């Protein structure tokens, strides 16, 4: 008896890096960012349905490897992601990732995808979605401090979702800023390269900090931040890594994704355990206020949360049928008799003899 052919359930759609790039270019980056943001917003509105826990982190002296799981009761998802700032000097990515969705009823995976690119998209989409609720009205200028791999995605998302047209750029490595200038030179932005963080924030209504070094850092000091700005602080994402002086936090209204995780990893790790924060799902559902007036300093202490990855993977899965941009992986052993896994292996050996 020959081994049975793999069933349909054995095959899992897999989105490779090549197909992710094809999807971005075919869809258009701005359209894809706004699409992912819409899914993230929808899932924030369903916040209470989700399993929630801080990510499972394995730290070393050179970086961190993390698992980020969640479920809405029907679909389970997780992301594997690393953060190794020293990689850049070695010609490697600081962040790499892949993710999976599965059917809760059977446990069978229904999607496997690269998430190095998709994480960049979901991070930018989340930042801009939050700013839609928190940034001052009519904001058109953003300071982008830290001009690494995330920069152009942030810029594009803020233009598409918030109407940002002017970018003020600063990085301690001038080559990083030149890279952003090249990549965005034909994208319709007014671009200004700055020689310091102080110069970059002049005239900016939104300040994005996105640096990679795993250390307590002070990218912004209290005296640099004036009334009325929105700070999108997304560089601090693990214990021992911050970007803002704690006095800024004391003056600002701070908004977070999931407090038990952010208190460990975010800017508020510098503050007492009872430091007040507002959860973004409450703002999006109308249970809490976002921006109240023109002088308020709002601060998004964004560390990235599993539901956002779930949303991005859910968006991706919904594009597969219409685009066909995936490969079918024979990934699940699914014998014709579920009790006879051994027999399936043995018959395959006989067939191959």
Automatic annotation (TrEMBL):
Q: Which SUPFAM superfamilies match?
A: NAD(P)-binding Rossmann-fold domains
Q: Which Gene3D superfamilies match?
A: NAD(P)-binding Rossmann-like Domain, ornithine cyclodeaminase, domain 1
Stored InterPro entries: NAD(P)-bd_dom_sf, ODC_Mu_crystall, ODC_N
Q: Which Pfam families match?
A: OCD_Mu_crystall (PF02423)
NCBIfam families in UniProt: PRK07589.1
Q: What is the official name of this protein in its record?
A: Ornithine cyclodeaminase
